[in-house]
Amino acid sequence: MNTQKIKAADTEISFYDEGKGKPIVLIHGFAGGKEYWDKIIPVLAKENRVIAVDLHGHGESGMAKDHYSVEDMAGTIKELIDHLRLEEVTMFGHSLGGYITLAFAELYPQYLNGFSLVHSTANADSEEAKKGRDANSEKIQEEGPGSFIDGLSKKLFSPDNLELNMDEIAETVKIGLKTSVKGLVSALAAMKNRPDRNYVLEETELPVLLIAGELDQIVPPEKTFTVDKPNIHKYIIKNSGHMSMYEQPNDLVKAMHDFLAKL
After folding, report:
1. pTM of the predicted model over 0.85
2. SS3 content of the chain, % helix, strand, coil (to 5)
3. What letter does residue 160 receive in the DSSP assignment?
4. pLDDT at residue 222 tops 90
C-alpha cells in the first residue's frame, strides 16, 4: 500500500492513498488502523481513489494533545481532505469511525456525497457502557494494553467463526498493539462522551448506508438500524460479527459497491 504522512492537527497523520476515480475515505474503529481495510482496498481501488487514515494515537499517527473528541478527529479528517484537494468524498466509518463520520456529516456536510456507518451506531453510550469505558481506561493505564487488546480482538469476531478466523484475530491484535496507551485512553473518552446523533440521520438528505453484522456482539443490527427514511439504505452481512472486512470481505465490498453506484 502507498503509505503517506501529512502534518495535521499539529501532528503527523498517516494514511493510504490508492487508486483513481471518485474518492472514498475509510475510517477504522477503536484500537484499529488503516490496515483493517487491507483486504478490500485493492478491490475498491480498481474504480475509486481510496484514502484510509490512521486516527490519532493509532497506527502511525501521532498525538499533539492528550485527548481528542470525535469532533476533533472529524476536523483532522477534514484537514486531510483539504490537503488532498478533494471537493467531495464518500465516507465509510467502522465502529468508532462511524461516530466520527456522523460528527463529520454534521459539521462538514458540504464535503460529502454520501456516508456509511459500518458496524456502528448513532446512539450514545448507555450509562453501563460509559462505566465500562472508564474501567477499561483504568485497566490499560495500570496494566498496559496487551491483555485488553487480546480480549477485545476475540469479541470483535463472531463466536461461531473464532476457529476459522484465528489468523485474522492475530492480525487485529498486532494492529491493536500499535495503538499507544494515550491513543487508547483518548479514544475511550471520545466514545464515552459522544452525543446521540440520531438527529443527523433524521435530518440529512444525503444518501446513507447502514451496514450491520448478523452476529455482531459489539453493535448488533438493531443498534445500527435506528432510523427509517427513503435515503437510508440498510444491509445485513450474514455470518459476520463486528469485522466484516475480515470475516466476509466480499459481502462488504458488494454492499459498498452497490451504494457507490447509486451516488
Report:
1. yes
2. 45, 20, 35
3. G
4. yes
